[in-house]
Amino acid sequence: MSPHGPSDVPLLQIQALGKSVPGGRVLFRGLDLQLCAGEMVAITGESGVGKSTLLNLIAGLDLADAGDIRIDGVSLSALDDDSRTRVRRDRIGFVFQAFHILPHLTLAQNVALPLVLQHAPAATALARASEMLAAVGLGGRDGDAPRQLSGGELQRVAIARALSHRPGLILADEPTGNLDPETAARVLDLFERQVRDAGAAAILVTHSDVAAAAADRVLTLTPQGLVPRYAT
Amino acid sequence: MRPEKVSRAAAGWMVAGEWRAHPSRVITAALAIAVGVALGFAVHLVNASALNEFSQALRTVNGDADLQVRARTPLGFPEAAYPRAARLPGVSAASPGVELAAVVGRTGGVTLIGLDVLRAAAVTPALLARPAGGQAAPGADVFDPDLIRLSPAALDASGARLGGLVEVSAAGHVARFTVAGVLEDVPEGRKIATIDIAAAQARFGQLGRLQRIDLKLAPGADPAQVAEALAAVLPADAEVASSETAVRRTDSLSRAYRVNLEMLGLVALLTGAFLVYSAQSLSVARRRPQFALLRVLGAPRRALLAQVLVEGLIVGAAGAGAGLALGLGLAEAALRLLGGDLGGGYFGDRRPALVFAPGAAAVFFGLGLAAALAGSLLPARAAARAPAAVALKTAGDVAEPPSASGAWWAAALLAAGAAAAFAPAIGGVSVMGYVSIGLVLGGGVAAMPWLARLLLGPLQRRALPWPAADLALKRLWGAPGQGALALCGIVASTSLMIAMAVMVTSFRGSVEDWLDQILPADLYLRVEGGGGFDPDLQARLAAVPGVQAVHFRRTTTLSLAVDQPPLALIAADIDRADPARDLPLIGQPHTTAPGATPVWVSEPAAWIYRLKPGQTLRLPIGPTGGAETTVAGIWRDYSRQYGAVTLATRDYVRLTGDRLRTEAAVTLAPGVAPETTVEALRAALPSPLRDRVTIIRPRQLRAVALAIFDRSFAVTYLLEAIAIIVGLAGVAATFAAQTLARTKEFGMLRHVGVLKRQIVVMLAAEGAILGAVGAVAGVVLGFAMSQVLIHVVNPQSFHWTMQTRTPWGLFVGVSAALVAASAGAALAAGRRALSADAVRAVREDW
C-alpha cells in the first residue's frame, strides 16, 4: 500500500457500532467515527469503558454486535477470519503498552516480521527493518537481542515494527503506559513524527493528557459512543 | 479465496528462536521419541534376525525339497507311503528318511536322520558330508551302515572326533558308529547327525517305518495339486508340508511372544508421544502471548498450526533418527547377550547374526514422526484457536473454566477401549486387546483434569491452615489441565507398569498354584534325549526300598495341523471315573460313552484347535494311523504353549503298543529320607541311561519353572523400567517449563511478603498433590488395563487364563515413590522461583 498524505478521503469509517460483553453489559452503542489519512485521534475514557475492545474491533480481532467498520472502503463484518487477518496484516500497524517484542528474535527480525508475514523475501524485509531501526534511533543494533534494551528502546522497536510495512492505519494502545515521563515524551514525539512522515492515520488510546495533546482530535469513549473531550 | 501459503521465513525464525532459548525442552522430547523408537526397532530387529536365521536353517536342511511328507508323531508312518509318493505325477525325486531325537556321545538334542544317500543327493545335499579339509576319514564309504556324519555343532558337543567311535542313543536303542565326516553345510549351532537309512531302521527299532520323505517336483508341476494328490495316498499318521507351511509353523512358534515384546517396545514410543504432547502443550501455553502477537500482526491461524506441527516434526525426525541408531546398537547387544528370543526360550541358545531391515527402519522412523506429530496436534490446534485479543493481555498461567472440558472425550475413549476388549483375536494375536489398552490409556490421561477436580474439590472448598499448601491447592484447582499436562507422561508409564505388574503377579501366582497341583509326588524322574524306562526297568524302580508308589508317564509329540507347532501327547495313569484327581481340570469333566476313548486336552490346545468337551478328536496314532477319541475335559497347563493331549496309559498302549515311559513320579514311604532313595533309584538305572535321567525334588522343579518364568519376563521388566525413567524425566522437564512461565507469579508472591521457605513448601505441595493425583490415576488405569491383559490378551495370544491377584504393596510403594518424585522434581525445577530474577520479573516486560 503506498503512503498517503493528509487527505479528506476517510481511511476508517465506523457507523453505529455496538458491542456488549458476556453477561450482557453494553460497552457502547451507536458509535460513529471517521478517520482520514494523515490524521491522529486520541481516545480517552475510564478504565473498563471499552477502549481496548474498540481497537480490537477495528483490528478485526473481534466482531461487533451491531454496526459496520470499513477500512479503505472494505467492510470487516463481511469478511471471514482469514480475510480480516489479511486486512490487518496489510493495512494496520500496532503499538502496545507492553511492547510485545518477541524475546527470541533479534531487533531486526522483530521489525521485519510484518513484511515477512506478507511473504516479502527475508533479505528485503531485513533491509527495510534496518532502515526503520535507524529512523527510530537504533541504527546499527540490528542483531541485538531485546533483553539488552531498556523499556523506552523496546517501544521504539515496536514503533519501527508498526511502520515497517507502510500501513495506512496505526493502532496504539497506551504506548507510553509503561514508560517514565521523560522517556514517554521522547517516544511520543518519535511516534508522532514517524506516523506523520509516513502519511498514516493513527488512533491512540491513552490515559495520558500529554499523549492526548499530540493528537489532532481527542475523543472520550462513553457508553453512548465517542464524544469530543471537554464537551458538555 | 484460496488459503494463503504460510510464511516460511517467519516460521523458521520463530522455531529457531524458540529452540535457541529452550534447548533442554527440545532435547527431552527428542530423547523420549528416540528411546521409544530404539526399543521398538531393537526388538523388531532381534525378532527378524532370529526368524531369518531359523528360516535359513530350515531351508538349508530341507535343501531343494519342494514338498515334504512328515510323520505326525515320532512313531513314524509305514514306509509303504514312499513308493506311492515317489510315483505320483509331478514328482521328479523323492528321498525317504528316518528322523529321531538322539543322544550322541555326551550331548543330547541331536536330530538323527537316516538317509538313502543316492536319493538325498538330489533333494537335500546339505545333509551329505563333505570330507573335512578335503580329506575323507579313513575307510569312508557312503553306504557303510557303521558310519555317522555330524554337523560341526554336534561334533563339538558330543566330544567325538573324526574317525573315532561314538555312542548313539535313540528311541530306546543304543548303537555305536564311526564318525566319517562333517556336515559342513548345516547352519551354525544346529546339531544334526546322518547315518544310512537301513542302519537307522534296523538299529533303532524303526523297521518298516519312516518319519519323512523329501520330494522334488518336476518343472512346471503345481505344488498345490501334487500336495493334494499326495494327501490322498498317505496314511493318517503322515501329513504334507511345504516351505510355506514350514515357515508358518516356525512363525507360530513364537509369534505371540514376539508380538508381545514388540507391543511393549511400542509402549515406550507411546510414552514418548505423551511426553511430546505434554512438552508441546506447556510450550504453547507459555508462548500464548507470542502466538497472539503473530495473529495480531497478520499471521493466519494455519501458520500457528503449521509452526507447532513443524516443531513436533523436527523433534520427531531428530528423535527417530537417533532412535534407529540406538536401536541398531541395542539389537546387536541383545543378540549377543540374550540370544534370538530375548530369553523366551524358543530358539535355543543360538546367537543369530543381526540382519538390518531397511523397510522396518523406515516404518519405525515413520512411527517416531507420527508419535511426535500426534503429540503436537492438540497443542497446535490450541495455539491456532486461542483468541488473540484475550491472549495478548494474559501472560503465563490462565485459570481454566469451572467445568472440566474434554471429559466427554475421555468417556468416549474409555468406552471404545471397553468395546475393543470384546473383539476376537486377529491372526491368533490379540490385536484388539492391545488397541483396547491404548484407548483406555488415552481415555484415562484425557480424564486427568476431571479427576484432579474430583479429588481436590472437597479440599479446595476449605481454607487450609497452611498458607503455602493452600496456595498450591488453589492453583491446582484453578488449572487442573496444566497439572495434568505435567503428569501426562508419568501417568502413562506408571499405569503401564502397574498393568504389567498386576498381570505378572497374577500369572506367577496362578503358575505357583498350578505347580502345587501338578507336583504332588516327592520325587520326579525324567529321561533326556530319547529312550525311556522299559517295563522291566519300571518294575525295578517300583521295587526300590523307600518307594511307596510310582506313576509312569510317556510324553511324545504329535502334529494335528501342518502349520501349527506339534503338541505334546501324554500317556498317564488317569482315573477315568475321577480325572480331577490327576489333572488340574477347568470346569466339569464330560462323561464319555462306553467304549469311547477319552482324552483330556490342555487349555492352550482347546483354544488353538477350538476343542470343547464332548467333541470328537482324531489322533494320528493307532494301527490305522488315526484313532477316534472324545474330549472328556480341559485342564490347565502353563508349560506347553502349543497344547497337550492326555490319555490314559492303557488306551495309549492299546493304540500304539509303545511301553516305554519317559517320566516317573515317585511317592516315598512315610519317614523315608529323599536323598537315600535318590541314590537307590540312580543305582537301579542301567549305565547307558544313568547320566541321562534327571531326578529332581518338587521344590527344585518349582524353582526351575519359576526361574524360566522370570527369565521370560526379564525383557518386559526392563522395558517397564525404561518407560518409568523416561516418564520421570518428562515430569522434571515439564515442571521446569511450568515454573519458568510462573516467574512473575513467584516475584509477585515475594513482593507481597511470602517467605522463600513458604514458596518452597508451596512448590513441594503442588508436586506432591499432583503426584498423588497421578498415583491414583496410574493405579486405577493400570488395574483396568491389567484386566484386559489378563482376560483378553493372554487368552487370545498365549491361550491360557489366570486369576487376578492384586499386589497392594506395589501399589502403595509406587504411589509413595511417585509423590516423592513429583515433589522433588517440582522443587528442583522451582529453584528459579527463589532467585532475584523472579522479583525483578514483576517489573519487566515479558
How would you describe the overall organization of this protein?
The complex is a heterodimer of chains A (about 230) and B (about 850). Chain A has about 230 residues and is an alpha/beta fold. Chain A has a domain at about 40-45 and about 80-225: P-loop containing nucleotide triphosphate hydrolases (Rossmann fold, 3-Layer(aba) Sandwich), CATH 3.40.50.300. Chain A has helices at about 50-60, 80-90, 105-115, 120-135, 150-165, 180-200, 210-215; strands spanning about 10-20, 25-35, 40-45, 65-70, 75, 90-95, 170-175, 200-205, 215-220, 225-230. Chain A has a 6-stranded mixed beta sheet with strand order 6-7-8-3-9-10. In chain A, strands 2-1-4-5 form a 4-stranded antiparallel beta sheet, with no helix packed on it. Chain B has 28 helices and 21 strands. In chain B, β3 (about 90-105) and β4 (about 105-115) form a beta hairpin. Chain B folds into 4 domains: about 1-65 and about 255-395, no CATH class; about 65-240, no CATH class; about 405-520 and about 700-845, no CATH class; about 525-695, no CATH class. Chain B is elongated, with a radius of gyration of 33 Å. Chains A and B meet through α2 and α3 of A and α1, α9 and α12 of B.
Helix segment count of chain B? 28
- Helix/strand class of chain A: alpha/beta
Largest sheet of chain A: 6 strands, mixed
The H/E string of chain A reads: EEEHEEHEHHHEHEHEE
Total DSSP E strands of chain B:
21
Compute the number of helices of chain A.
7
Key features?
heterodimer, A: 232 residues, alpha/beta, Rossmann fold, 6-stranded mixed beta sheet, 35% helix, B: 846 residues, alpha+beta, 10-stranded mixed beta sheet, 6-stranded mixed β-barrel
Layout of secondary structure:
The complex is a heterodimer of chains A (232) and B (846).
Chain A: E1 10-20, E2 26-36, E3 40-44, H1 51-58, E4 66-71, E5 74-75, H2 81-91, E6 92-96, H3 107-117, H4 122-135, H5 151-164, E7 169-173, H6 181-198, E8 201-205, H7 209-213, E9 217-222, E10 225-228
Parallel strand pairs in A: 3-8, 3-9, 6-7, 7-8
Antiparallel strand pairs in A: 1-2, 1-4, 4-5, 9-10
Chain B: H1 8-21, H2 23-62, E1 67-71, E2 77-78, H3 81-86, E3 91-104, E4 107-115, H4 117-123, E5 147-150, H5 152-158, E6 165-170, E7 173-182, E8 192-196, H6 197-203, E9 209-210, E10 212-217, H7 223-233, E11 238-242, H8 243-286, H9 288-297, H10 301-338, H11 358-385, H12 388-393, H13 407-420, H14 431-446, H15 448-460, H16 467-478, H17 480-518, E12 523-527, H18 535-542, E13 547-558, E14 567-572, E15 585-586, E16 598-602, H19 603-608, E17 616-619, E18 627-635, E19 644-648, H20 649-656, E20 663-668, H21 674-684, H22 687-690, E21 693-696, H23 698-712, H24 714-741, H25 743-751, H26 756-798, H27 808-829, H28 836-841
Parallel strand pairs in B: 4-8, 5-7, 14-19, 16-18
Antiparallel strand pairs in B: 1-10, 1-11, 2-9, 3-4, 3-6, 3-10, 5-8, 6-7, 12-20, 12-21, 13-14, 13-20, 15-18, 16-19, 17-18
Helix pairs in contact in B: 1-2, 1-10, 2-8, 2-10, 2-11, 2-24, 8-11, 8-17, 8-24, 10-11, 13-14, 14-26, 15-16, 15-17, 15-26, 16-26, 17-24, 17-26, 24-27, 26-27
